Each structure stands twice: as C-alpha cells, then as structure tokens.
Amino acid sequence: MGKTLNFLNNLLHRPTRYSHSVGPVKDLEKYVQQDWWKHIFDTVYLMTDGDVVNDPKITKEEVDLIIQALDLKQDDRILDLCCGHGRHALELARRSFKNVEGLDISKYLISVARKCASEEGLNVKFTEGDARCLPYPNDYFDAVLILGNSFGYFEDMNDDLIVLKEVYRVLKQQGRILIDLTNGDYIRKNYEPRSWEWIDNKHLVCRERSLSKDGHRLLAREIVINVDSGVLVDQFYGVRLYSFNEIKTLLLKAGFVDVRLHETLSIISSRGQDMGMMGNRLIVSARKGTEPPSSYIPAEELKTIVVLMGDPKKPDPVKPNGVFDEDDIFAIDELKKALSHINGYRFVYINNHDKMIEELMKIRDSVHLVLNLCDEGYMNDPFKELHIPALLDMLGIPYTGAGPRCLSYCYDKSFVKSVAKDLGIPTPKSTLIKDSSELCDVHIDFPVIVKPNFGDNSYGITYKNVVKDKNELMKVLTWMRDSLGYKGPILLEEYIEGDDISVGIIGNPPDDYLVLPIIKEDYSQVPVEFPRICSYEAKWLKGTPYDKVTSIRVDLPENTRTLLERWCLLLFERFECRDYARFDWRLGSDGVPKLLEINPNPGWVWDGHLNKMANLAGISYPELLRRIIEAAEKRLALKKYLEVIESKKTR
C-alpha cells in the first residue's frame, strides 16, 4: 500500500499537458464535448480529485460497504467497471479476493493501475476498453461494480442503457450489479455554481457549474493553475443526474430485478474542500434474474463479428482539417449503439491500424465475419481502401462488402464511365486529361465540372469546380495541383442541371436484393448563384451555403424508375459489388438518367445517404446494418454450397 501511495504522489509532480483558458463562458453546455470522458482522466484528474481517489481511508470504507451490500465471497469473479486507476479493485485484491478485474477507457489510468498492482504484487487484470462493448463472454462475472460516480457520462441516456445491458450480458444468473452514482435530486438543489481550492502549495483549481438546458445533467468547468507556469488545463464535462426512481427504471429496462437503494453516501474531503458531485451519492444494487429476457443468447451461440474502421489517431487527408473530429466520433458512437441492438452477435472493434494485421491474425480462426467499414483505407490512405479486403482475402477471413477488384475499378471514375458506355448506359460527356497542357488538344463544351479521377466522398470537388470558361478551368486545375496536392488524372465532365439522384441496393442480385427508395438532393435552400452539386462543402463542412441541403424521395415516371433500377442491377453485377452499393445519377434535360459514379461499400454513417433511403423504406439504422450482415452471410453460405457441389462433380 505504501509503494502505491508513493507512486501516485510521484505522478503529481510530472509535467502534464498545458492549455490556454477560453476566458469567461456564459454557456458551459456549448463547451462540453460528447466524448469528454476520453480526454479528461490523466495526471490532472489524480491531482484535482486526489483528496478522494487517493485517500486509502475512503477507499477502505467504500469497499466495506460494497462487500456488505452484495455479500461478496472471496471466490467471486468481480469486475470493477470504469475502474479508473483501480483503487477499489486493488483494495479487494488486498483482502484476498482472488478473481478481480478492472476495465476503464483511460489508457493512462489503466497504466497507473497496472503499475500499482505490480508494485504490490497483486493479481488483478486491468483492461482498456469501452463499457458499452465489454470484451467478456456471457455469464462470466458474479458481480459488476460501477463506483466513484463513474456512471452517466454519455450525452445520450441510451448509452447508459447500453452499458447496463452489457453488464447484464456478462453477469452470471443471479449475478449482482452495484452502482455508486451522484444523487441527482440532491445535487440539482445543492450544487455550488462556483468554487476554488488549493490542491497543494503549487496548484489551484477553480470550478464553475450549471445545469444543462434540459436539467438532466450537471455541467462543470475546471481551470487548474500552476503558480509558476500558469494554466495547466481548462476543461469541461457533464454528468447525467439520476434520482433513485430514474436509475431503477433504467435497470429494470435493462432486465435487472430486485433493485435496491442501500443508502446515500456522504464523504468529506481530506483537504476539507468542495466535494462537487462526489459529495452525496446513491448506492444502488440489482440482480440478474433467473429468467433470461427473450433476447438473451448463450455465450457459446454468439457469433463474433469484427468491425474494421478507420484509425482515429492517424491523419486523414479526406476529412476537414485532416483529422477525425467530433462528428466522426459521434458517428462511431451511433454505429456502436445501432450494432448493440442486433441480437446474436458479439461485436469487436479494431481501429488501430498499426496493430490491425497482428490482431486479425490472432483471431482469424474465431471470427464469424468482418464488417468492413474501413472506407478511410489502410492507414487512412484512401488509395489503400482496397488493401483491407485484400488483406482479409489473404488471411482467409470472410467479410462484408466489395472485394479489392471492385474497389479498384470504382475508384477510377473514367473507367466506370467507359464500362457503363459499353453496357449501353448513358453517362455525361467527359474528357480525361493529365495536366493543363492537354487543353489545347481537346474540345470542351462549357460548363463542365472538374473532378479528381481517383477518389470518393467528393474529395477535391467544391462549388468552384463547376466552371464556365477556360479561365475558371485553369484556376481550378492550379488549385487541385498546388493546394489540394492531387497528382492523378483529372476528369472534365459535362455539367448537367437536372436532379441529383441516388439509388441504393441491399443484398446480392439477381435473386436476393432490395432496391431502396430513390432519393434526390433538395437544393432549394441553396442560394441561386451556387451550383447544384453534392460537393465537399455539402458533405463535410458547416457554415456553408450547402448547410440546408437535404435528401428527399424523388417522384420519377414509372418507365424511368424501371430503367434506372435495371441499369443499377446490371452495374452491380458487372462491377462485382457485394451486399450493398449506391449509384449516383443526374437526370438530363430529356429526363434520361446519366451515371455519375458507383459507390461500393457506400457510407455507413447514421446520417448518410444509404440510411436516409432505408428510413424512407421504414428500415431503422440497426435493421439496415443487420441486413448488410445477413446479405454477406447468405452470399458466403451460397458460395460454400456451390464449392461443395463443384467438388462432388470433380470426384
């Protein structure tokens, strides 16, 4: 125990990240990031909350209460969920509890916990992970603890429910959960709007607090100041406030029974200072009943699906500012929530590209399927999108969506148009050039839209790419080469004023597929001086003239719709699309659709075009994802069946 305290005390004097204060803030809610909990738990947290989280007396008293409330036995398998630096798990291990594990989202705090366990020779396994997707099998733990006010961090209460459902899944029958959380009713009435305290002789923390507009979360701001160096951090966070009845309702909804309020817990800071949300807490327990809910599936029957995604820690040249932003993180969270509603599978997420190959090789024999959502490409290189399925093919791992050949074909806009023409499918007139020196040798009927021949996601296509003469064309070509850095061939394509429409297909033609409702982009709110195109601004940027572009159902003549669907099915099979795809068109002045591009593995995000089409068909986001998974399963089962039949013929 002494070694652990020395180790923690040493941490407080290490250099930490610095920040600049944003000054006076009227609305704290605007500054609270959705994923604040991914960034705030570091050395500064151990300083500001050290009077509680580093106080062995408080920890011992809390563990006494936990053992009594749950009647824990030393052979019980116990998970300290959202364990921080492991103070409760370590204390349980000190008391000879033999099967204790801890999980937390903070890489830093997990490293501290592991170090403390090693220093004391305690056998506690600490894992970095997300509480909404636990890396444990069904029926694994006797008890799960969520302590130290570590519940209610998500902006959406549905995420809290997902956490409880995951806890329910990993608990054994009759297993117990204990949650130690802020007393919402008390805090709403008694929180301190402002406070400050000295942490030690060098550090001062100033706090501001307010309720969110809906009154369901307490928002807080902490400015930590070093007397020599100035502001260390200026950080914002928010915690959902639950009353006992509210948390009871949520536990019952997750499937728990026998929900009990043991007591309200009040503690005193060793510094005699403001306790904030830790000052008055509810201790609530519940039990996993003997009768499993209808959606319950035994662990041995769950199929493991690995979800491959872009690497959020690496640069991404396609995204605004070249990095994953809060919209990307929100989209990932929405995806995880949707997948959590699909029964029968255990989803494992891989997004660390430095270790992707190593991790896939380890689990290749136990994977049912890979849900390939890595449209960023290997190492977030869009030219290496096809490398992901190529890698999976080499490892013999089945996956959803297009293979490498299809992705390669469809990344080349000019090639797509060439094949479409051979199939008798109309396309806009176009010319492919390598550089501006070739302009003298080609005839151009303006206006045209200038596009990088290689690429997707409207990369390199802004409203300025619609040009009316050679002068504007030269400016765009110079921008693409010098500013954008694009080095490939450039497509000069006839600009068509008609409706910008899109067709989505789920399944695998010719026998098992669904054509989703056809949509068009509604540009009616875009100022008239801007071209009607789904540009980079429309897809990626806020505060542009394209902010109010929406997708709506398009009303097409029956013969046009029939022709359009037939062409899409023909292209789907010719380009070897699989499981799902999207096809973008423009209606010519004669009402005939002209193909713009093919999108194999189209955008999977909750607000993407494919999900918008699905919603028009009455298909929810989770159901859309389930159908994509099932399409791959059926395709792979058919392939295996045909291989068996063929092998019998050759005997």
Describe this structure in words.
By secondary structure, this protein is of the alpha+beta class. Among the domains are: 2-10 and 55-192 and 239-288, Vaccinia Virus protein VP39 (Rossmann fold), CATH 3.40.50; 302-399, no CATH class. Strands 3-2-1-4-5-11-10 form a seven-stranded mixed beta sheet, sandwiched between helices. Strands 19, 20, 21, 22, 23 and 24 form a six-stranded antiparallel beta sheet that branches. Helix 5 (87-94) links the parallel strand 1 and strand 2. The radius of gyration is 28 Å and the shape is globular. Mean pLDDT is 87; it is low at 3-18.
Strand order of the largest sheet: 3-2-1-4-5-11-10
Helicity, in percent? 25-40%
Q: Under the CATH scheme, which architecture of the domain at 2-10 and 55-192 and 239-288 would be assigned?
A: 3-Layer(aba) Sandwich
Radius of gyration: 28 Å
Global shape: globular
Biggest pleated sheet: 7 strands, mixed
- What is the average per-residue confidence, as pLDDT, rounded to a whole number? 87
Keywords:
alpha+beta; seven-stranded mixed beta sheet; 651 residues; disordered N terminus; globular
What's the structural blueprint in terms of helices and strands?
Blueprint: H1 2-11, H2 43-48, H3 50-53, H4 56-70, E1 77-81, H5 87-94, E2 99-104, H6 107-120, E3 124-128, E4 141-146, H7 157-170, E5 171-182, H8 184-190, E6 194-198, E7 203-211, E8 217-226, E9 230-240, H9 244-253, E10 256-266, E11 280-288, E12 303-308, H10 326-340, E13 345-350, H11 356-363, E14 369-372, H12 387-395, H13 404-410, H14 413-422, E15 430-433, E16 448-452, E17 466-467, H15 470-483, E18 490-494, E19 500-508, E20 512-515, E21 519-522, H16 536-540, E22 550-553, H17 558-574, E23 580-587, E24 593-600, H18 609-616, H19 621-649
Parallel strand pairs: 1-2, 1-4, 2-3, 4-5, 12-13, 12-14
Antiparallel strand pairs: 5-11, 6-7, 7-8, 8-9, 10-11, 15-18, 16-17, 16-18, 19-20, 19-21, 19-23, 21-22, 23-24
Helix pairs in contact: 1-6, 4-5, 10-19
